[in-house]
Each structure stands twice: as structure tokens, then as C-alpha cells.
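From the methods appendix. Each design record in this collection lists the discretized structure first, followed by the designed amino acid sequence. Records were kept in a plain field format so they could be parsed without special tools. The example shown here is representative of the layout used throughout.

RECORD:
C-ALPHA CELLS (378 positions):
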């Protein structure tokens, strides 16, 4: 059975990146590897659109999320956690683990937070040290108003804005420096098009000032320690050597294409896929659409987990189902990784077949035809 990965992480990895990662391993304490580190770090600045240093850890994106909490805050600090889905809830869990007091803003799943709500809470709590949010909530497909909230926080000298951009950076525009984003985090297994295991994090000068005051425990995820190693062209601990070599190739390819074209690619896949969804009579789950993922609401009486299982076990196609309160109610098609318009048509056609098998009255071929027409015209 031929298998396809069209899930929002891990994603399909390109042959050029896989080839680079298959090269014989090199030692990480050598001038040769330091050259690769230097190049990767400069190209990460290009991706992040920042002049600040970008650090990384051998971890999933959650490792960098933890680093943001334990390096910038102190026990008893207040932090706003915007919770628009499963991954927004993770900020609260991290705050609780380190003794930071979370002020939760719960947003209806599939919707974006209202920046006015954030401003009102900040006005009432001027001692808040951080605002934690997702740029894109992967579990719901909802894009969040990062720029609007940054307009509020960038004029607050003691409050930082921390962005989980794990399924946003490299998918659509995020201007770290220009918008005033203090901390931006991503992971290797999303738009970077790598296997899981590498997280990256940018830190603004304002955020570094908070780091000087932090009293929370930290060892491996120590940003100040990593910065010292960065300045010596190395890392504090053994890095994910093969992943960094793969990242070197991925970033070079991204730079050659140009960020604008990378963003247009994701937008095109997303728009074509949504045309296919609408043509079948199905509904989109998210009210605030992102270029990273298309989330489809399942018809009444259809279990999304069963749809996902049929695709995986019978058709060899891995997409993603729902999590938390959306479990069984949705399926998610990724636009990240080594994917083309043909992968979108495959995913849409497979979902139609699974729905028909489960008894939903659907006319096969409509989704693929609508998507094909969009891609042909665009």
C-alpha cells in the first residue's frame, strides 16, 4: 500500500532534505559543524524576519514553549493564556507547572480571540508579565490576531508577547521585529518540512531583560546558557545533528524560493482544498481560516475518528482527527510539508469515499473536481 502523510505534523519530508540527513554523521564539536550552525542561524533570522538570535533545542515545539515560561517568568508572576483550542490550553498547564498564575481567556473553538478582550484584561491587570498565545491554533484551524495583540503589548515595557507559531511560521506572514513579537517558537515537523525533534525560539531584547529577573528552575531549556554557546558557534548540549543538517537544506530552499512564494504556495493549497470541501456540501469548522490546515466539520451522525481510521488503514492516507472537545467532530488536512495540489485532491477524494462508506449521501468526485478547477485557474 502506498502511504501518504497529509497531517499537520509530522509532515511529508522532501527527498532533498532526506538525502542531506542521510549523510554520514559528523561530530558536533568541530569547525565543520560550527560552519553549518552559523549558516543555519543566519537563515533562521531570514525565516523569522528578525535581527535577534534564534536558538534551538533538541525537542518538540513544547520544549521551546517550556523554555519561554521558565526563562522569562518568576514564581507568582501573572500571565494571560489565550486558549482557543487544545494547544492554547498547554500554556496554562505550563504556567501551573512552574507556579506562574494564569489568567485564562477561553475562546470558542474554531474562532479567534478578540484583541479588545485582551486589552481590557491587561488594563485591569497591569502587572501581567506575559501574554501567551498561538499564531494558529492547530487543533481547530483558527488563525489568531497576532499583529493586533502585538500593537497592544509592544508599548508595555514590562509585558512580553509570546507566540506559539509552530504551525504558522513559514506558512504565512509573521514579522517578528516589525510587529514587536517578543518570543516566537516553532517546531521542525511543520512548515520547516523536517522530522520531529527540533524546536527554535527567538527572543527580543525586552524579553531578555525579563530573563535576567527570572527565578524559575531551568537546566536543559536554559536560554542564557544557549546564548553563551551560540556566541561561541556551538551548543550547550549535544544537538540534533542530522536534523540541523536537514534544516540547513530546508532553509536554503526556502530562501531560494523567497518567503512570499512560500506563503503563496500554502495559501493556494488551502484555497483549493476549501473549494473542494464547499463543493461537497460539507462545512468548514474554523471561523478564522488559516493557510496551514483545512478543518472539515463532520456531518451529523458521522464519527470523524472512523473517517480518519478508514483513510489510514484502508487507503494509506494519514490526515488528522479532532482533539479535546472536537474529537470525532472534525478531520484536518494539512498544507504543510512536501505537498502539492495533487495531494489535496487525493485527501479530498479519500474523505468522500470514507463518508460514502459510512452511509453519508455524498456524490463522489465533486470535491476533487472543484479543487482541480481552482488549481487550474490559479
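DESIGN:
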Amino acid at each position: 500500500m502506498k502511504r501518504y502523510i497529509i497531517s499537520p505534523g509530522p509532515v511529508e519530508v522532501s527527498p532533498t532534505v532526506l538525502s542531506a540527513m542521510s549523510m554520514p554523521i559528523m561530530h558536533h564539536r568541530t569547525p565543520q559543524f560550527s560552519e553549518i550552525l552559523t549558516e543555519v542561524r543566519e537563515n533562521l533570522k531570514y525565516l523569522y524576519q528578525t535581527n535577534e538570535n534564534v536558538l534551538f533545542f533538541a525537542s518538540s515545539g513544547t520544549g521551546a514553549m517550556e523554555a519561554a515560561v521558565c526563562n522569562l517568568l518568576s514564581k507568582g508572576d501573572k500571565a494571560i493564556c489565550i486558549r482557543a483550542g487544545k494547544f492554547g490550553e498547554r500554556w496554562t498547564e505550563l504556567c501551573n507547572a512552574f507556579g506562574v498564575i494564569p489568567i485564562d481567556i477561553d475562546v470558542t473553538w474554531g474562532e479567534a480571540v478578540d484583541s479588545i478582550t485582551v486589552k481590557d484584561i491587561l488594563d485591569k491587570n497591569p502587572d501581567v508579565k506575559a501574554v501567551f498565545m498561538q499564531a494558529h491554533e492547530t487543533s481547530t484551524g483558527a488563525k489568531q490576531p497576532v499583529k493586533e495583540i502585538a500593537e497592544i503589548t509592544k508599548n508595555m515595557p514590562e509585558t512580553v508577547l509570546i507566540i506559539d507559531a509552530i504551525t504558522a511560521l513559514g506558512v504565512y506572514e509573521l514579522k517578528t521585529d516589525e510587529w514587536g513579537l517578543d518570543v516566537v517558537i516553532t517546531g521542525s515537523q511543520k512548515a520547516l518540512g523536517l522530522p520531529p525533534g527540533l524546536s527554535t525560539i527567538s527572543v527580543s531584547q525586552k524579553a531578555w531583560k525579563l530573563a535576567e529577573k527570572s527565578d524559575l528552575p531551568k537546566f536543559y531549556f536554559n536560554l542564557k546558557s544557549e546564548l553563551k554557546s551560540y556566541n561561541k558557534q556551538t551548543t550547550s548540549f549535544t544537538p540534533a545533528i542530522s536534523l540541523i543538517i536537514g534544516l540547513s537544506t530546508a532553509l536554503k530552499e526556502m530562501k531560494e524560493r523567497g518567503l512570499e512564494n512560500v506563503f503563496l504556495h500554502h495559501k493556494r493549497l488551502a484555497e483549493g482544498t476549501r473549494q473542494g470541501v464547499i463543493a461537497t456540501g460539507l462545512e468548514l469548522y474554523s471561523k478564522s481560516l488559516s493557510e496551514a490546515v483545512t478543518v472539515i466539520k463532520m456531518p451529523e451522525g458521522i464519527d470523524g475518528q472512523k473517517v480518519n481510521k478508514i483513510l489510514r488503514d484502508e487507503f494509506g492516507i494519514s490526515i488528522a482527527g479532532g482533539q479535546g472537545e472536537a474529537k470525532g467532530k472534525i478531520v484536518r488536512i494539512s498544507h504543510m510539508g512536501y505537498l502539492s495540489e495533487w495531494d489535496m485532491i487525493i485527501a479530498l477524494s479519500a474523505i468522500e469515499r470514507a463518508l460514502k462508506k459510512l452511509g453519508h449521501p455524498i456524490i463522489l468526485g465533486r470535491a476533487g473536481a472543484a479543487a482541480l478547477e481552482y488549481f487550474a485557474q490559479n
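APPENDIX NOTE: The mean pLDDT is 97.
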